[in-house]
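Batch manifest, entry 17 of 40.
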Amino acid sequence: MEDGKAQFTFRFPDGQTLVAKTGDRTDDDVRNHNKTITAKIETLCGKVPPAQTASVYRALSQDGLAPCLDAFRTYGIRSGDRMPVTFTLAKDDATGAVTITYTPPEGFPVPFTWTATVATDGTVATTPLLFPPKPPEKGPDPVPDINLTVVNGITMSRLAGKEDLMNFVLSLDIDKMHGKVTEDGMAKDVKGDDRKIYTYQGIIFRGDGRRPTDPTMKTGFTSKKDLSVRANKLEAMGLGVETAAPGGGKTYGSWGATGTSGVSCAKHVGGAIGYLNETGTFYIIDSTKIPKREKAWDMENISYQNGYKQRAPGSKQDDTGGEVNVSHIPRQAIVGAIYIGTSFQIEPKRGADRLKAIQQKRENFWFNPDYKQ
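Output type: structure tokens
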């Protein structure tokens, strides 16, 4: 299993070996491989509804192995390494639900147990994926347990209290995402051209000068500009800004730049940490908890997928800094925060050093009692 285009090889007890591939669903090679796996699932589970078959299929590939992939990195196992996992399928004849149990094969260095139960309507219920802590290579602090859960189909760290929040922050990497990007319809940009819109669901980060006790924080984070004004909303979505040109006419620019329209956050720590100073507050926010009428726009994909910005093939360059711009963040979507404190200097300003400094401020962690995962 590898990042990006993954290939999954299944070896069944009857000796049959099948390969599932990811990629363009219209690709004949991908489609034929996937049909073969689907037929095998029905052989093992009996005839099941299409929605249930699709969820079982996903649970046997990306959705089931992605949590394992994330946790394996903590143990030094790279994403491109071969990762064998044993699956056991069991069907409840009374309810029709199919339960998949994931366990490591004999001799695998990381013990774990992870189950997913797929109902007949395709919904999936999972048990927490709990890995034992890895002994630290240096320093007194052990790496915390990686305790994962699934929220709205997204694998996330369990965040049920202050201890979970501390463990999550202590496990953070500077450029790792904790959610997923979704294509979310079309919209016309400032020039009137049709553009694809992308939104982000998961954990996002924000550096801010205000504490949660600030009176302006009673309703969460609000855009400085009024987003009911079309020009401001287009700017918030990264769809450009119209300005008057010298001598008449109009110019268009600021693609992927949001100004003060919306609430700027980042989908990885590195994109938010540079906005902190010695008196700031580092916020952890769950964008799956914003109301449906609100949006968390993913600037990287809006900018690059629509051709506003360019990068070399295979490059991970992101001039947006991983920005996720949110129309409004209610207080109940704020997981918690870390107060930096007036006596605390974050120097040098390199991301990794700043992250390490924040992780040491354990006495200043705050968990939002209004947040419910």
